[in-house]
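User: Hey, quick favor. My workstation is busy. Could you predict this chain's structure for me?
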Amino acid sequence: MNKLIQKIASLFISLFFSFSVLSAQDFPESWVGHWKGNMQLTYTSGKTMSVNNELIIKFLEVDKDSLEHYQWTIIYGEGAEKQERAYELITVDAEKGLYKMDEKNTIILPFFYADNTLMCLFEVMGNYIMSTYRQEGGFIYFENVSANNKNTETSGGEGDVPTVTSYPISNLQRAKLSRVK
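Assistant: No problem, here it is.
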């Protein structure tokens, strides 16, 4: 009976780890599609606004270096206010969760994928931006958190306590996107 339980437990553990690895390898294939929702913008000034937000992900090709390329188009707003950003997500090393986003204008950002979340931290025009995309429960949650790199607060630094520099958040952009196609 113990051997049967051990075999069942071993099979269960193997299936669990196989499923975990398969889930991690499903990215970005399982994200392919057209996603749509509203983005809420919240500023520390108290100002808030909502805009249409879409994300279109399509497989493009496998290049000569065996790297997978995906169209990654972000759409903000509608009508005359519509802004479309046609980027390209490139798989660098899926096992390590390494990707890059080519903005097609000489800007290429490194992204890291783990736990159903694609993320990147970068600085542009004096602002730090933490950008994340997370797939959960049939939705993609998109979030940008911004902080000005000149607006700092410093604390600690006494005795054995290290000095810590913090960057107060200036705004938050958050969207919940549903698959439409």
